[in-house]
Amino acid sequence: MAIATSRDSGLAGHVQVLAHRAWNVLRANWILGFTSFGGPPVHFKIFNDKFVQKSKWIDEQLYQELFSIAQALSGPASTKMLYCINLIQDGFLAAVFSFLVWSLPGAIGMFGLSIGVSNINDTLPRPVYALLSGLNAATVGVIALAAVELSHKAITDKLTRIVVFLSATAGMLYNALWYFPLLMFLAGLATLVFDYRWLHRPVAAANRGVIRLQWWKRSHAPSPPQTQATDNNTTLAAAQSQPDDIELNTIAPSAQSNNPRSDLPLTEQDAKTPTSPHMSATTETEPRIVPRELRLSISWQAGTAIIGCFFLSFIIVMVLRSSAVLPASPLLYRLFANMYLAGTIIFGGGPVVVPLLREYVVAEGWVSPRDFLIGLALIQAFPGPNFNFAVFLGSLTAIKFGQSAVVGALIAWVGIFFPGLILVHGTLGIWGAARSRRWVKAVLRGVNAGAVGLIYTAVYRIWNVGYIDEGFQFGRSLGDDPWWVVVTATSFVGGRWFGFNAPVAILLGAVMGLVRYGVVSS
Fold first, then answer.
1. Where is this region: Disordered (predicted)?
2. How does DSSP assign 161-220, residue by residue?
3. Which of these, 136, 189, 224, 461, is most buried using a 10 Å CB contact count?
């Protein structure tokens, strides 16, 4: 009897602990699913304000680490980051619960809109197009502002400034599934090479060779013909030749000194000198000490096993997706496989994945270009993750082929979110063993800068398809009409200097879109 009572009390205590954790997660995360507008760039800023500055669940350095991991892996970037924050704070169940609280409000809203879009005529009323274009224009301003503010933290020296610039411009110039992971890799490699000074010695040796060659040419150059000159001319000539003499005297002793390496721009002492704020003398010799409350209980072996199981599942899904294996595979399975593929191989977060999803649904003939464009405009103005766009597309696909809209939306939702969450969960296990190493910190610096640069790429891509109207199949550039430029500028300036938060800025953009319609139609 006493044993049974003890077990009951232990179970009650366990349930009480779980209920307390669930309440903490709900209290901290419920508002995010309703107010986090603007896509991943804005979400990252919101998470920093909430979990670093206010609640202090994580510190700034851990935030930067999670930001790098979320950007470096495929899948929904801001969703992965929120999942990681709650995983570190309260464990696996809390992380899953936070994901549901974060994603479901927007997912339910996109599902309802898909039902409405499936029942409309071939064309929408003109005010609706103006409203959607205004939402897109304001969203561009909000994302641009978030990119600028994130740049202040990612840029720590001239190198990271260059990385932000080059990754942004490179992302604008080309677009492919493999391209964005390559840019992130190159960004991390650049800071690793720079911080470890792997190229400094070869460059210094080449520079020393050039200096010695110039000195040799000067020392063996033929003397100019002697001419008679007055004392004043002689003085003037001596004054004019003085810089060369000084340079020669500066180089020659260095070359003739007992230390053959004394003329190197890089000395042994230089090699130990930090090259950036992130490579301080302390970090050179001491690993990062992670507070116990910020450590994960996942081992690197468990993390590796999770990632391995995921890739095994990915191979199975892709093999079954092939027409050679299942020539007549069910529509809903093909929908799941396409979303699973998109969630696995597309990097860069919502602003990148949303346009690329066209290949997986419009090219298949499941969703019309017009409906895709409407959904693209709507998701920019919805709170929560942009990957909820898959719910909209899955529902429309199921409706078009006589299937259950709820089932289609659920399959697409699970398919596109599952890969990123599983990958980031496994990666955190490996990260726990590698995070204190100096080279990891060097790579993170570049990955952070490259990720911020790709946010500017997202601004550019949304800008190019944000203007929609009757008859548009793919959207046009917001720059085609000066009014949308004004809307974008208003959104940016309002957030930057007048404290407009994202919902207010986006709502203002919608109102300005309707104002344009009223003026033009009159």
1. 252-286
2. HHHHHHHHHHHHH---TTHHHHHHHHHHHHHHHHHTTTTHHHHHHHHHHHHHHHHHHHHT
3. 136
* Size of the chain in residues: 522
Closest CA to 385 of 115, 1, 17, 47: 47
Residue type, 366: W
Residues 6 or more apart from 87 whose CB is under 8 A from it? 94, 95, 296, 425, 428
pLDDT digits (tens, 9 = 90+) for 449-494: 888 898 898 889 889 888 888 777 677 899 999 999 999 999 999 9
Residue 199: what residue type?
L
Residue 111's CB: how many other CB atoms inside 10 A?
A: 20
- The answer to whether 101 touches 28, Cβ cutoff 8 Å, is no
Closest CA to 348 of 57, 75, 2: 75
Terminal alpha carbon distance of the chain: 84
Tens digits of per-residue pLDDT, 300-316? 888 899 999 999 999 99
The answer to whether 274 touches 157, Cβ cutoff 8 Å, is no
Query: Percentage of residues in the chain with pLDDT exceeding 70?
Result: 79
- What distance in Å separates the CA atoms of residue 494 and residue 479, rounded to the nearest whole number? 20
Provide φ and ψ at 476, rounded to 5°: -125, 170
Under 8 Å CB-to-CB from 286, ≥6 apart: which residues?
none
